[in-house]
Amino acid sequence: MAVTDEAIEKIKAMIVSGELAPGDRLPPEKELSERLGLSRNSMREAVKALEVIRVLDVRRGDGTYVTSLEPHLLLEAISFVVDMHDDDSMLEIFAVRRMLESQATGLAATLGDDDAIAELEREVDSIDATVSIEELVEHDIRFHSEIVGMAGNAYLASLIEHLSSQTVRARVWRGLTEGGAVERTLSEHRAIADAIARRDSGLATSLATAHIAGVERWLRQAASA
Predict the structure, then answer these.
(1) CB burial readout 161-172, b (16+ within 10 A) else e
(2) pTM of the entire structure?
């Protein structure tokens, strides 16, 4: 194991064991490196790496702190990875999203409270095919986020959110607009919302699977064009 990797693992172990909790300040670099038996240079590189993935927060002139370790922070880097991938990889990423989000949609039909379902229905009612691509993207983000939020799992919600970044959504909606498929796609949103409102978990799961699979088909066609 590389020295920097060893330093990362040792800091991670301190967090996992509870020796360092969210919001705690790390000991000074010299003290920490001596305690862990590592050079200050490797410790410095480890801290930089953990800062990038939002495990640590380096505050200049103050010290280094463990972040809140909330899911939305730790999974943030996925959006960057998604944006950097090519069309073939994007299809694989959408396949993962389809599997996760379809199950989350089924859970929404089971676990979503009346207020959340009413908010989802208002979101569907607020949009039509005449709006701009930017408004469609914002609607898409809110629609899917509200559904996944009903599943009650913050890690699942963050993972699904970052598997489809705003850049990817804009590209998809632009293609749907050019292909005249916006009304059909919004109709699918309505059908999913209706299934959730009826507490029909099986139907909601199936509709979400078909909906995301349709986006996959569009991406596949666009990649081969």
Answers:
(1) bbbbbeebbebb
(2) 0.70
Last residue of a domain, one of 69, 96, 114: 69
Tokens coding 211: 């909906």
> What residue type is 75 in one-letter code?
L
Whole-angstrom Cα distance, residue 63 to residue 135?
A: 41
Are 26 and 32 spatial neighbours (Cβ–Cβ below 8 Å)? yes
Per-residue tokens: 98: 């389809």
CATH code for the domain in which residue 149 is found: 1.20.120.530
Mean pLDDT of 193-200: 98
Q: Which two tokens stand for residue 155?
A: 């890690």
Cα separation of 139 and 53, whole Å? 28
pLDDT tens, 8-46?
A: 899 989 998 999 999 999 999 889 888 888 888 888 899
Half-sphere exposure of 79 (CA within 13 A, CB side): 13
Question: Into how many domains does the chain fold?
Answer: 2
Q: Are residues 10 and 78 in the same domain?
A: no
**Of 69, 104, 127, which residue sits at a domain end?**
69
How far apart, in whole angstroms, are the C-alpha atoms of residue 58 and residue 29? Answer: 12
